[in-house]
Amino acid sequence: xxxxxxxLLFLGFALLIVGLVAFYNGLKNFRLKLLIENTPTxxxxxIAMGSVEVYGKIIxxxxxxxxxxxxxRDCVWCKWxxxxxxxxxxxxxxxxxxxxxxxxxxxxxxxxxxxxVDPKNANVDTPCDFTEEVGSNRTLLGTIRSLKVSTDIxxxxxxxxxxxxxxxxxxxxxxxxxxxxxxxxxEGTAVKHEADVLIxxxxxxxxxxxxxxxxxxxxxxxxxxLGIISGIVMIIIGLLIIFLRLGKL
Length: 249
Prior knowledge:
Blueprint lengths: L2 H36 L11 E11 L5 E2 L6 E2 L1 E12 L2 E13 L2 E4 L4 E4 L5 E3 L4 E4 L4 H9 L5 E2 L2 E2 L2 E8 L4 E10 L15 E4 L6 E3 L3 H35 L2
Parallel strand pairs: 7-14, 8-15
Antiparallel strand pairs: 1-6, 1-13, 2-3, 4-5, 4-12, 6-7, 9-12, 10-11, 13-14, 13-15
Helix pairs in contact: 1-3
């Protein structure tokens, strides 16, 4: 087999694999779109067990407010990232080499009631709202080291940048998850119905988003179309390349 044939075969298989992944992600987002469309937004005071969709304001648990590691702001959920600048022939790029997550239970309030949310294993849709290059900032360097991340290589300082995504008190969020019995409330002791409910990842989908339902649906439709259409195109092209090359061997 010539090197050109081998290269084309590699391209064909690469397109096939990437196409299958894109198609799968498109179908996954299509299922999410259907779930969002078919799950009515519940008032918290009348929330039922099972798949549920609520929209309300974040209220931290008493004495359970977390601190984002780099910005120091109060939050209930925070994903942090440390990136290093890597040089390349095209200039350079930021390469993520360490990340982490802190989170705790929090409440959602929609003026009709308050329900407990466990964000563990949730797909959290929130923008990166804090980014800073570290430079010689001693506070940031100390925080990075406390997270067991090296700030130098054999004494040579790394060019680092930190970033955070966070959910904070009083932010409004859309939550799509599964309502289950609240394990922290003894059976029959809840004064209000919703006090005995916990929203968590007990089903296939668990989404917490700062976007409204309308914006989420718009985004999900676009991602679904892009994934399915681009996936089909890449699968077809990949298979054509593979069959044509194999036929010439």
